[in-house]
Design a protein that fits this description.
Order of helices and strands: HH
Shape: elongated
Number of strands: 0
Structural class: mainly alpha
Oligomer: single chain
Distance between the termini: 14 Å
Strand content: under 5%
Helix content: over 70%
Largest sheet: none
Amino acid sequence: MGFFQELGHKISHAFAVATDWLLIGMGVLLILIALVKIDVVLARYVVIAGGLLLSGFGLWFRWRRLRKEEASSEVE
């Protein structure tokens, strides 16, 4: 692979990992805000559900990416 192609792959990977962790962090932050700041019970549950959904997607994307890296390292 060429230098620029490999550099582009590394930048793309770093961006993908950062977005995975941002999803997880935003989900946890939403859950914490809902538990501490929101007094309306129904609204609290909706925000907690949104936080769990965001964190779940982040964890799922991260898990898929780790499995993909593991599989590609076994092939090489």
